[in-house]
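Sample pair:
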Amino acid sequence: MQRLVASPSLVVVQTEFSLYLLLSIWAYLREHACWKGDQKEACQQAHKYFKEREQSGSFVASLEGEEYAGAFEALRIEHLINHPLDVEMLEFDNIISKETLYPVFRNQWYSMLKVDQGLDKGPKSINEEEFNRCCLRCGRILNTDAQHIWRWTGYNFGVDLIVTYQGRSIKFRRNDRSEPDVLRSAVVGGRRHLLYRLAVFSVGPNGDANPLASTGLRSATLARNAETKVLTIEKEFKFPLIISANFLVTTPLSTSAASEATAAELSRS
């Protein structure tokens, strides 16, 4: 399970937190093999179970939970804490220890400050291995051949990305409030860089995913309210479609730290 969760080929439908919920249900059902019910009931029961555990330590640090530690550690924790309700559930469940969570809070806060001060306008180029390790993973299922417009919820460092599917094509638009320029800072209104990888799959009769199109790893620079076409599906297909998206809108701290160190070294030479 750890290898599956960590795999860059994994298609995450909805968001990283959806994957966390699935893992919590998986762990609960393995510990309670006789339980019966539907997925919604399982999610509620798993949350109740983890919330009401008597042990003070985290579940993965306990004797019963240690076999699940690898799977939960493979989650992108930085993408589990971008919505207040998700943060509350993480803390109530106490599956992942606070000692693991809190350094990630610090890093996300630091990244937010860098974006706010215009010190990070997003990554232009990093190697694919680092992108795979740091990117936001999300997805959506489209059941009908119609125009679909959506966004994935949660804090995204000021980049409100709207995705549109229509007539075999997928577009990104950076949504921005229509305030006069005089009321906004140059940082908020300026261009933002992002890296993305988008893939589209059709669903076969046995539930298998058949690849239709992929962008590979690409970069985009978007001004406010700018729109760009990112993919057109050339192959014939039937609905439903699975849209798999990977995004990176901030420069990973390891990369930015290395760049700053290089710049400092060059300034001394």
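Residues 258-269 have pLDDT under 50 and may be disordered.
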